[in-house]
Automatic annotation (TrEMBL):
Top-level EC class: transferase
UniProt record, GO biological process: heterochromatin organization; methylation
Protein's UniProt name: SETD7
Lineage of source species: Eukaryota, Metazoa, Ecdysozoa, Arthropoda, Crustacea
Keyword Ribosomal protein attached: no
SUPFAM superfamilies per UniProt: Histone H3 K4-specific methyltransferase SET7/9 N-terminal domain (SSF82185), SET domain (SSF82199)
CC annotations in GO: chromosome; nucleus
Catalytic activity, EC: 2.1.1.354
GO MF annotation terms: chromatin binding; histone H3K4 trimethyltransferase activity
């Protein structure tokens, strides 16, 4: 029997007295689905959920959840898929079904590194690193086995608009294993980001954390320009305070060192991290060779972009796309027709890249600035 529900596209299965009963398949918006067993209208027994198709998985659906339910509440050992390809696993709280307890583990996307310890409602309380050794199968569920702990203790950094994190100088070990920072190979590029080893296509290998700026507050427009401000989602921007743009002040993540190119080898994605929460990740568009510089398209609006960006854009149109001045002028005219905004022509085509500037005057914000408009 098929039935449409408000929270889904349609449901396949059996209803008893108007309630879902037995094996069901629920097709959700965006191409995802839930498969599992129900009793008296609530999940009861094995269940697995897959999310929407993601480019990360080359057309495959991503696992959102796998585990067991008891009368509508998660029970026992469960897997929770996170943005970016990591997983939170372990025995959930028996009363609430939340990922809370003294022995849960965050498995990094490489399925090698693991941050294991205490979590509360899916948020890291305290943990240390170990490695994934393998998996045992217990009553149909894969249960990972881990190595001994090593290294220091990690906690949730709790970034806010006024604090980038509790431990700004403690590197993320997964990212540190993938990238390093040195002088860029680009003209006037300053510091750049490089691959420490071969990075496989579609893998998320680098992180971009920052302070959180709610776009619905007056602080969002009151803060001065920053070269590091990027969009996290419709509600929040990430930014790097000016006092933290150097690695001796902030290196917990180093994604802010990546340089721009109109022919990039990487792209932005979302990443859910036990220390930083939801942040931006950097994903390889193709295989990136060891010691190769990592480049990304900043995707700035041309009408609002700095002059150096527009100079590079014109150079790209001419050299890579073989565009004539007339063709570039037509592109700019179409941009105006579509947006109502004109692209300012650079005064000249000499590339002059100023030193990058992080966000400033954060401490001057008051409570009114932080209220929703």
């Amino acid at each position: 029997m098929l039935r449409a529900e408000e929270s889904c596209l349609y449901t396949e299965g059996t209803w008893k007295n108007g309630l879902m009963e037995g094996e069901m398949t629920i097709h959700t918006h965006g191409g995802g689905f839930v498969e599992g067993y129900f009793h008296n209208g609530v999940p009861h027994g094995f269940q697995r959920e897959f999310g929407i198709n993601e480019k990360l998985l080359l057309g495959k659906k991503s696992l959102v959840f796998f585990g067991r339910f008891y009368r509508g509440i998660r029970r026992g050992f469960c897997w929770k898929g996170l943005f970016g390809g990591g997983f939170l696993v372990g025995n959930v709280d028996e009363e609430t079904g939340e990922f809370s307890g003294p022995d849960l583990a965050y498995i990094y996307p490489d399925f090698k590194r693991v941050l294991r310890g205490s979590f509360k409602d899916g948020v890291l309380v305290s943990g240390r690193m170990c490695e994934l050794n393998g998996c045992d199968v217990n009553k149909g569920i894969h249960m990972p086995t881990f190595s001994h702990f090593y290294g220091q203790e990690y906690t949730f950094d709790n970034p806010t608009i006024k604090m980038i994190g509790l431990n700004p100088l403690i590197r993320d070990p997964y990212e540190e294993d993938n990238v390093f920072v040195k002088e860029s190979l680009l003209p006037q590029g300053g510091e750049g980001l490089f691959a420490k080893k071969d990075i496989q296509e579609r893998s998320v290998f680098c992180l971009y954390n920052g302070i959180r700026i709610k776009t619905s507050t007056s602080a969002s427009s009151k803060l001065p320009h920053s070269d590091y401000r990027i969009r996290l989602n419709a509600d929040i921007d990430l930014d790097i305070p000016h006092d933290f743009i150097t690695l001796d002040k902030y290196c917990a993540t180093v994604g802010h060192k990546i340089n721009h190119s109109f022919t990039p080898n990487s792209e932005w994605t979302l990443f859910e991290h036990p220390r930083f929460g939801i942040i931006r990740g950097i994903r390889a568009q193709r295989k990136i060779n060891q010691s190769e510089e990592i480049l990304i398209n900043y995707h700035m609006n041309l009408c609002d972009s700095p002059e150096w960006y527009r100079v590079l854009w014109i150079q790209h149109q001419r050299k890579k796309n073989n565009s004539s001045d007339a063709a570039i002028a037509r592109i700019m005219d179409r941009y105006y027709e579509n947006t109502g905004k004109k692209i300012p022509l650079p005064e000249n085509e000499e590339l002059i890249v100023p030193d990058p500037v992080g966000v400033q005057n954060i401490d001057e914000l008051d409570d009114e600035d932080l209220k929703e408009i």
